[in-house]
Design goal:
This protein is α+β, with helices and mostly antiparallel strands and 202 residues long. It has a single domain, classed as Alpha-ketoglutarate-dependent dioxygenase AlkB-like (Jelly Rolls). It has three helices and 14 strands. Strand 4 and strand 5 form a beta hairpin. It binds 2-oxoglutaric acid and fe (ii) ion. The site of fe (ii) ion (FE2) has 3 residues, from loops. Its cofactor is Fe(2+). One of its GO terms (biological process) is DNA alkylation repair. This is Alpha-ketoglutarate-dependent dioxygenase AlkB.
Length: 202
């Protein structure tokens, strides 16, 4: 448990974006149950991308769920969304009630250990629109998460704990990148769920 309870009204970014830490939204037992259910029920696949003309297949697994059959174009590939599972719907409902906002899709990541991470990027695809809100739920191993301003290069880091919720909104994706650094010390898996508002017809 952190020394100080997180306050979702506090902005963790100093300027040009808004990141709110909602802290724990699940009890340890609820978080364990969601972790186990989502780990086994999700249609995990390696992520594929074309980066500088090279076809990359990741060790990290991903999955995409949504209200409709959305087609997500990114990094030179296309992904079709799957229909929600019961666990995902239950977690989505919980997040929506906390935030008073609805989401229509969720991108999931499975990091088998600290040897897998995610490089610096911004979720600034056209299909999310400008000033999108992304709600990120963490389950499993605690991992460091960092933001870096695109121009000033200032960084802000925090730890994402089992059963916690972090929200990125405002112009965060236009001005900041984020990453999940690798860490050889971490031997346990982590699941991350980012609930998103996907714009159809983009
Ligand atoms: O695993 C995380 O906490 C971040 C995932 C992420 O940034 C993404 O899916 O776009
Ligand atoms: Fe991201």
């Amino acid at each position: 448990m952190p020394l100080f309870p997180s306050d979702p009204k506090t902005n963790l970014l100093p300027y040009d974006g808004i990141v709110n830490d909602y802290g724990f939204i699940l009890s340890p037992l609820e978080a364990d149950n969601f972790f186990e259910a989502i780990l086994s029920e999700t249609a995990w696949k390696s992520d594929e991308a074309v980066i500088f003309g090279k076809h990359i297949i990741t060790k990290r697994k991903v999955a995409w769920y949504g209200d409709g059959e959305y087609i997500y174009h990114y990094s030179g590939t296309r992904k079709h969304s799957l229909p929600w599972t019961n666990s995902l719907l239950a977690l989505k409902d919980l997040v929506e009630k906390k935030m008073d906002l609805t989401f229509n899709s969720c991108l999931l990541n499975l990091y088998h250990s600290g040897e897998e991470g995610m490089a610096w990027h911004a979720d600034d695809e056209k299909s999310l629109g400008k000033n999108t809100t992304i709600a990120s739920v963490s389950l499993g191993a605690e991992r460091k998460f960092s933001f870096r301003h695109k121009k000033t290069r200032e960084t802000v880091s925090l730890v994402l704990a089992h059963g916690s919720l972090l929200v990125m909104k405002g112009d965060t994706q236009s001005n900041w990148q984020h990453c999940l650094p690798k860490s050889a010390k971490i031997k346990h898996p982590r699941i991350n769920l980012t609930f998103r508002r996907f714009l159809e017809d983009t």
